[in-house]
Amino acid sequence: MRPFAYERATDVRDAIERVVGDPEAVFLAGGTNLVDHMKLGVRAPERLVDVRRVAFGGVEERPHGGVRIGAGVSNGELAAHPVIREGYPALSRALLAGASGQLRNLATTGGNLLQRTRCVYYQDATTPCNKRDPGSGCSALTGYTRYHAILGASDECVAVHPSDMAVALVALDAVVEVAGPQGSRELAVADLFRSPGNEPQRDTVLDHGELITAVLLPELPLARRSTYLKIRDRASYAFALVSIAAGVELDASGRIAALRIALGGVAHRPWRALRAEAALRGTVPHADAFSAAADAELADARPLADNGFKVPMARRAVIDVLTRLTERP
What we know:
single chain, 329 residues, alpha+beta, five-stranded antiparallel beta sheet, four-stranded antiparallel beta sheet
């Protein structure tokens, strides 16, 4: 057992000050990801700064539209909240598709976004992994790759981001509030995550000591006509082989006025399907158009030895979800 210090932060500033001065310190929220990795010997922080008692706020409707979600709100509470269920069903469904009820009641909004990959090689401290030990190599490149990336990967890492919630937030144009030693800032959830490049150990653009304090959901007409589909090996408590969050707004003539599509289980970060969106914007909803848009988005897919099935699976998922969304009255 490796010893570590445990401290409870009293507020956001206190939490940041406790972490920023110690390169081996990390924030602890629900711990559903971090504690697992500590048990496996994958991560060994020397100081845990508990932020569960910090007052981040709850789920609040904003005066000029949209919703603010405090970083400490549990996944279970957020999924069940009537404002989210009615106004942002893709987010509620994504949360309900993740983990078990017990874990959802412990996991937090901020922590969910910052969970590390569930790649089997990352979680096995006896194998080389560039994300865990930069420069050691990527065992997945010549190993078991059923769950790995088909888009945006690199020779350094082919792992995928595990969060269902993050995929929905990207599709809903969500923004994160971040506090750090240099002050506060906001950035799109889509810009929070990084592709692996030659630094796969960096999942996000956050600096050491920066803390997510809230997620902001804009008021989007398409958010009410949104959903989340997760395809996995078993019906519960399994990570996505492919997932999709999408929302559609139709104009008076029935054409697609606006849409958002994000894919999960296919890349190192939630994958915003910008090519597919561009191909469909302003068109009449039709299966052939959905098929062509999916093909355009997946044109650069580079499947590995065990995951070639993800390309047709993602294609069919896009067609199915968009068909269902545009058939609704």
